Amino acid sequence: MYSAAADTSTSLPPNGVEEKTVLEELSLPILLADRVFKSAQEAESSKQDCSDLAKQLDRLSQMLRSAVRLAISTPLYDRLC
């Protein structure tokens, strides 16, 4: 018989699995945004489209970095109050 009270899988990670930090979660997207930004700046064809893409990627990268700085500098309970 299924017991809803015994199901804690949605609230706790499995045994032995640690949650990643914000920095760990966002480091790959930041790195990829930087790489695509650089490639878009170096593009020889579709310069206007690549320029627009580079601007959007620069903004995205800045927002991701800001999120990491906020998460590292301010404890969660301070942000919620």
UniProtKB/TrEMBL annotation:
One Pfam family of this chain: DUF7792
Q: Where is the DUF7792 domain?
A: 24-79
Where does the source fall among the domains of life? Eukaryota
InterPro entries linked to this entry: DUF7792
Designated name of the protein: DUF7792 domain-containing protein
Source organism: Salix dunnii
The record lists the lineage as:
Eukaryota, Viridiplantae, Streptophyta, Embryophyta, Tracheophyta
